[in-house]
């Protein structure tokens, strides 16, 4: 290992930025040289650039600007762009986050180049290979040299897949670190006033392919959301990938529906903090509502974050069951976590990850390199 090793972080979408910020900050405090590659998978400023400001992330050393596209086109563009930047930057370790296409592309590029890698949020599984993210998770964990698990069940899943225990570290959830850091700034009132919302409202975030990529699925989901809006006004920050399809299905501004552009990190979580209910198909939002004590209904048949279900703050629902589930959640009131928060959700995941990486770079308990030789 070089005297002054370099760590690169590959970030492409909102959840990546939120998870990376505590790690980047903690590594900086340890004096580790590092840089960020922004792939531009989320190309809208409200989905990416604003998160750098909100989370205090440094300017990226490269912005690939890949934008949207089919999985094949987007991943191909990522592979080409990342290979060039990784070879140019010559890092000693590349850290990837979550399960987006940027994560998959980075792990493949580094495996081919022989560059060592770490995966933050390893071992999450929905056991649904129909989800593109599930494929990304499995491949990433199979190739990563160091794996950082956010919850205990991930350890068993990784062991079942043959990942050596020596590679895996249970560190807690860096997304929760970011949430704790932001808490003093999370004031719903200014956002509610700006968006013209009443005091009592719900928030919906909907973008999963299974929910929005066909007219039939989008219509079923929108009909269910409109039914819930008869009980409580709903604000819907719409992800670019589903905007047109949901609009075609009838999700447009109305008396009880407020459709808005994507929000920055602080504004969005401020809105969630003040909500009576959240309806989502996102992964991270399930975790954020667990900490904020806001009832969450996840419109999916499964989740890679089962700890939010067993904790009692989140419930899986189908579109058909959504209106009745929303009625019950609103009647029951604020979500009451079952005892303390999940293990290691204490705001210290970033420092734990940084300490492991720092020791790893110095050669302590060094994991074997990925297959392939490093290109000079």
Structure notes:
The chain has helices at 14-29, 49-55, 71-89, 101-113, 132-143, 152-160, 174-182, 188-195, 209-212, 215-229, 243-248, 265-273, 284-292, 307-310, 322-332, 349-361, and strands spanning 6-11, 33-38, 62-63, 93-97, 117-122, 146-149, 168-170, 202-205, 234-237, 257-260, 277-280, 296-298, 314-316. With 376 residues, it is an alpha/beta fold. The strands form 2 sheets. The protein has a 7-stranded parallel β-sheet, with helices on both faces. Helix 6 (152-160) links the parallel strand 6 (146-149) and strand 7. The longest helix has 19 residues, at 71-89. The protein is globular, with a radius of gyration of 20 Å. The two termini are 14 Å apart. Residues 366-376 have low confidence and may be disordered.
Annotation keywords:
alpha/beta; globular; disordered C terminus; 376 residues; 14% strand; 13 strands
Summarize, please.
The chain has helices at residues 14-29, 49-55, 71-89, 101-113, 132-143, 152-160, 174-182, 188-195, 209-212, 215-229, 243-248, 265-273, 284-292, 307-310, 322-332, 349-361; strands at residues 6-11, 33-38, 62-63, 93-97, 117-122, 146-149, 168-170, 202-205, 234-237, 257-260, 277-280, 296-298, 314-316.
Q: Helical amount among residues, as a percent range?
A: 40-55%
Q: What is the molecular shape?
A: globular
The end-to-end distance, rounded to whole angstroms, is 14 Å
Order the strands across the largest sheet as they lie in space.
Answer: 3-2-1-4-5-6-7
Class from helix and strand fractions: alpha/beta
Order of helices and strands: EHEHEHEHEHEHEHHEHHEHEHEHEHEHH
